[in-house]
From TrEMBL:
Positions of transmembrane segments: 361-383, 395-418, 439-465, 477-495, 502-524, 604-623
Domain of life: Eukaryota
Membrane-related topology note: Multi-pass membrane protein
Example GO molecular function: ABC-type transporter activity
Annotated ABC transporter domain residues: 25-271
Name of the protein this chain belongs to: Putative ABC transporter
Keywords in alphabetical order: ATP-binding, Membrane, Nucleotide-binding, Transmembrane, Transmembrane helix, Transport
Major localisation: membrane
GO CC annotation, single: membrane
Intracellular or extracellular location(s): Membrane
C-alpha cells in the first residue's frame, strides 16, 4: 500500500486513476500569421500521439520546434496562443469535453509561481482551499496535504518557507516538487508539466522526474512533460517520446525503441553518448552551416517517420481506442460539477495575502519604514509652524507635499503587485478563480496596512508641523490621507495590470503622479488653469480633491496673526478680512484665492470613492480581457 493510501485509507485514495485509460490526439495543426510577411506560418503540422494510464511522455525538440505550443494545445490552453488551432483530442477514444477536461487535468508551469513567504505545508493548504470543492471537509483536506507531503518526500521541509529574496528557503528541486504536489491536490488523472527540470542541475532534475514517475506508476496517472535535453538517467525514466523538429514529428513511440529506430534509419546513435543529446542535436537546424544539407536530412527524418511502423501503430492505437467505450460512459459519472464556495475563495486569498504581507517585508514593511522617514523629514522641515501670516504659504506647501508625495511613493507597491499578479495568472489558467476574487482580496488586504501607514505618518507629521490643533481636524486629515493612499494604490493596480513590466509600470505611474501634481490646484490655481487641463484632467484628479479637502480642513476654521507694523492700525495683513482690526486673518480668505469654500467635504469624499472604485473596475476589465 502506498504512502497516500496508508495516510488516508484505501477507500479514500483519491489520486488513483480508475476511469481514464488513455489520452490521445490526432492531426494537431497550429498556424500563425508571420509578422513580417503576414502569410500563414505553420508551427505544428499534423501531430498524432497517444499515452496510456501510468505512462510518462516526454515532449522534446530544439528551441522553436513547437513543443510548448503542443503542450498548451493538449492541455486546452489555447486562448493565449493567438493562432489558428486544429486538433482532435481524445480521452478513452472519445472527444474530450473542455469543461470535463479541466476537472481531470492539472498543469504545472515552467516557472515556480509560488508565494515565497509561505511554508511548504501552507502552500499546499491554500492550493487545497482554492481548488477543492466545498463538499471536501477540513479533515479530508488535511489528510490529502499530509499524504502529498509524504509521497513527495517533503515532510521534513513542511514547515520551511518556500523562500524570499531576503530569507532563504527550500532548494530548487524541492520547489519543483511543491509545484507538482500543489497541482495534485485535486487528484487529477492527467498531469501536464512545462519544462519541469528548467533551471535544475542533473541531480535535481532526476529527483523531480523520479518522484513524478513514482506517483504516476503507483496511481495510474497520465503524465505529459515538455523537457529540454535531459540527462541519460532522466531520459530513461520516460516511457514514451514525442520528438519534434520544425513543427513536424521526428519520432513518436517508446523510449526503449529510440536507438533501434535511428539505427534503422541510417543515423546510428554513437556509443556512450546520451541519446537525448544526440537526437536533439540531430534535428536542430539553428546552427547549421550547410542549410540545404540539413534541410534534406530533416526531410528524410520526417519522411522516414511517416513511413515507419510506429507511425502506423500510433494511428491504429488511436482508432482502436475510439472504437471502445466513450469517455462519457466512464468518466463523467465520477466527476461532479463542484468548486470551492463563492466566499471561500476570496477568504483564502485574503488570508494568504495577509500572511505574505507581514512575513515579506518588501510588500508593506519597507513602505512603512519609508513613509515614517518621510513623516520625520516633513515634520522637522516644517517644524512647529506658528499660525501667522508669514507661515501661510509654508502651511500650503506642507499640505501639498504631504498629499502628493504620499501618493507618489505608492510606486513601491509595484513589485509586490506584479508578484501577486503572476500567481493570479497561473491560478486563473488552472480554473481556480477569476479577477473579481483576486481584486477583492487585493483591496481588502491593503486597507489595514494603508490605514496603519496613514495613522503613523499623521501622528508624526501633523503635530510636528503644527497644523490646526483640534481632534476633529486631525481625524479629517487622516481621512483625506487614507483616501489618497487608497486611490494611489488603486492607480498602481490599474497601471501594473495594463503593463505588467516593472520598469514600464514604474515609469507610467511616475508620469501619472506628475500629471496629477501639475493639475491638482497647488502649482496653478484651478480657476487660472488652462481650460484643456482643467476640464480634461483636473476634475478626475484625485490629488486635487485631497489637496482641496486638506486646505479646507486647515484654513476653513483657523485664524492667523498679522505682522506688527509702525502704523496707526498697528499691523499689516496680507489678506483683507473682517478680522483685520484684530490683527488677524480669517483662513477662508486663503481659500478664496484658490477658489475653494467650506461645506463641500461630503461631495468631495463621494468623488474620491468614485475614483477609487473606477480605478478598480478598470483594473478588473484589464485582467478580465488580458490572459497573460
Amino acid at each position: 500500500m502506498s504512502d497516500i493510501e496508508k495516510m488516508i485509507g484505501g477507500d479514500y485514495a483519491q489520486l488513483t486513476n480508475t476511469n481514464i485509460r488513455s489520452f490521445g490526439w490526432k492531426g494537431v495543426t497550429v498556424t500563425v500569421k508571420d509578422r513580417q510577411t503576414r502569410r500563414p506560418k505553420t508551427i505544428l503540422n499534423d501531430i498524432n500521439g497517444i499515452v496510456k494510464a501510468g505512462e510518462l511522455l516526454a515532449l522534446m525538440g530544439p528551441s522553436g520546434s513547437g513543443k510548448s505550443t503542443l503542450l498548451n494545445v493538449l492541455a486546452h490552453r489555447t486562448s493565449a496562443l493567438n493562432a489558428s488551432v486544429k486538433a482532435a483530442i481524445y480521452i478513452n477514444g472519445s472527444p474530450a469535453n473542455p469543461k470535463t477536461f479541466r476537472r481531470v487535468s492539472a498543469y504545472v508551469e515552467q516557472e515556480d509561481a509560488l508565494v515565497g513567504a509561505l511554508t511548504v505545508r501552507e502552500t499546499l493548504n491554500f492550493a487545497a482551499r482554492l481548488a477543492l470543492p466545498s463538499s471536501v471537509s477540513k479533515l479530508e483536506r488535511i489528510q490529502r496535504i499530509e499524504a502529498l507531503l509524504t509521497a513527495f518526500g517533503l515532510s521534513g521541509q513542511a514547515n520551511n518557507l518556500i523562500g524570499t529574496p531576503i530569507r532563504k528557503g527550500i532548494s530548487g528541486g524541492q520547489k519543483r516538487r511543491v509545484s507538482v504536489a500543489s497541482q495534485l491536490i485535486t487528484s487529477p488523472k492527467l498531469l501536464f508539466l512545462d519544462e519541469p527540470t528548467s533551471g535544475l542541475d542533473s541531480a535535481a532534475s532526476f529527483e523531480v522526474i523520479s518522484f513524478v514517475k513514482d506517483i504516476a506508476k503507483r496511481h495510474n496517472l497520465i503524465v505529459v512533460a515538455s523537457i529540454h535535453q535531459p540527462s541519460t538517467s532522466t531520459f530513461a525514466m520516460f516511457d514514451k517520446l514525442l520528438l519534434l523538429s520544425q513543427g513536424g514529428t521526428a519520432y513518436s513511440g517508446p523510449v526503449s525503441e529510440v536507438q533501434p529506430y535511428f539505427d534503422a534509419c541510417g543515423f546510428p546513435i554513437p556509443l556512450y553518448m546520451n541519446p537525448a543529446e544526440f537526437i536533439i542535436d540531430f534535428v536542430n537546424t539553428d546552427f547549421a552551416r550547410d542549410r540545404s544539407e540539413v534541410d534534406q536530412q530533416l526531410n528524410m527524418v520526417h519522411s522516414s517517420w511517416h513511413k515507419s511502423r510506429l507511425a502506423t501503430a500510433t494511428v491504429a492505437e488511436l482508432t482502436d481506442e475510439m472504437a471502445r467505450n466513450s469517455m462519457d460512459n466512464e468518466v463523467n459519472p465520477a466527476i461532479k460539477d463542484e468548486s470551492a464556495g463563492r466566499f471561500a475563495i476570496p477568504l483564502a486569498l485574503v488570508h494568504r495575502s495577509f500572511i505574505k504581507s507581514y512575513r515579506d517585508i518588501i510588500a508593506y514593511g519597507i513602505r512603512i519604514a519609508m513613509y515614517m522617514g518621510l513623516a520625520i523629514m516633513m515634520g522637522t522641515v516644517w517644524l512647529r509652524l506658528q499660525p501667522d501670516q508669514n507661515n501661510i504659504q509654508s502651511f500650503i506647501n506642507a499640505i501639498f507635499f504631504g498629499g502628493a508625495f504620499m501618493s507618489f511613493m505608492a510606486v513601491a507597491y509595484i513589485p509586490a503587485f506584479l508578484e501577486d499578479r503572476a500567481l493570479f495568472i497561473k491560478e486563473r489558467a488552472n480554473g481556480l478563480y477569476g479577477p473579481t476574487s483576486f481584486l477583492v482580496a487585493n483591496f481588502l488586504t491593503g486597507i489595514p496596512y494603508l490605514f496603519l501607514i496613514t495613522v503613523l505618518f499623521s501622528v508624526v507629521a501633523y503635530w510636528l508641523s503644527n497644523f490646526r490643533p483640534a481632534a476633529e481636524a486631525f481625524f479629517t486629515w487622516i481621512m483625506w490621507l487614507f483616501l489618497d493612499l487608497l486611490a494611489a494604490e488603486s492607480l498602481v493596480v490599474l497601471i501594473s495590470s495594463v503593463v505588467p513590466i516593472f520598469v514600464v509600470a514604474l515609469a507610467a505611474t511616475a508620469f501619472a503622479n506628475g500629471l496629477w501634481m501639475c493639475t491638482g490646484g497647488f502649482l496653478v490655481p484651478p480657476h487660472t488653469l488652462n481650460p484643456f487641463w482643467r476640464y480634461v484632467f483636473h476634475y478626475i484628479d484625485y490629488q486635487s480633491y485631497v489637496f482641496q479637502g486638506m486646505m479646507v480642513n486647515e484654513f476653513g476654521h483657523r485664524n492667523y496673526t498679522c505682522a506688527p507694523a509702525d502704523t496707526p492700525a498697528g499691523c499689516t495683513c496680507l489678506y483683507t478680512t473682517d478680522l483685520a482690526d484684530q490683527c488677524l486673518i480669517d483662513g477662508t480668505a486663503v481659500l478664496k484665492t484658490y477658489g475653494y469654500s467650506v461645506g463641500g467635504t461630503g461631495k468631495w469624499v463621494g468623488i474620491m470613492l468614485g475614483i477609487i472604485v473606477g480605478y478598480r473596475l478598470l483594473g478588473w476589465l484589464v485582467l478580465h480581457f488580458r490572459k497573460n
